[in-house]
Structures are given as C-alpha cells and as structure tokens.
Amino acid sequence: MESLLPIILQLVAGAVGGNVGGATMKDSSLGGLGNTIAGAVGGVGAGSILGSLIPAIANVAGGGLNIGNIAASGVGGIVIQIIAGLIKAQMNKTA
User: Fold this and answer.
1) Which tens digits make up the pLDDT trace of 24-39?
2) CA-to-CA distance for 81 and 70, rounded, in angstroms?
3) CA atoms within 13 A on the CB side of 30
4) Do the domain assignments include residue 76?
5) Do residues 39 and 19 lie in contact, with contact meaning Cβ atoms separated by under 8 Å?
6) Assigned domain for 26 exists
7) 57 has pLDDT over 60
C-alpha cells in the first residue's frame, strides 16, 4: 500500500491541476470529467518523470510527504489539460 501512495497523490494533484487549468482557460476546457482525466494523466506523468530526473525535488519531504512531487504533479496536470483543450478547440474549428 505504501508504494501506491505516491501514485494516488500524483493522480489527485494532477486532477486538481487539470480542473484549475480548465477553470482558468474557459475556451480550452474539456468539461469536468475531461479536465479531471487529462489532469490526472499529466499529474502521474509529470510526477514520475520529474521525480526521476530531479531527485532533489522529489526528496523535499515534510514528514514523509513529498511536496516537490505533488507540486510537479499539479503543474503537469495543468499543462496537459491546457494542451489537450487547445488541441480539441483547434480540431473543432477546422471541422
């Protein structure tokens, strides 16, 4: 169970980030569920990649809580949601 905790935190932080991105950029919003899914995917991806590339950020710990990893997951969720939303908006314009 302890090995699943970082992934769960990445999913949650990414989902929150995705919803923040959707609320911030209304024209690239994917809807509630779409923002959550895109953010969660981006959160897990960014948290895993950044955690392995920059161990110093991954090890900024506060009582065992990986603050750097959670922040990276949130930012990754925002970025992936905005990119996916912009792609969807462009596809709708050309169709």
Assistant:
1) 998 889 999 999 999 9
2) 17
3) 24
4) yes
5) yes
6) no
7) no
Tokens of 33: 């569920």
94: in domain: no
CA-to-CA separations, 70 to 15, 29, 45, 51, 64, in angstroms, rounded: 11, 22, 12, 10, 12
Res 56: pLDDT: 58
Residue 41 lies in domain:
5-18+31-89
Name the DSSP class of 28.
G
3-class secondary-structure state, position 29: coil
Q: What is the C-alpha to C-alpha distance for residues 23 and 8, in angstroms, rounded to an integer?
A: 23
Domain count, the chain: 1
Number of residues in the chain: 95
Does some domain include residue 61? yes
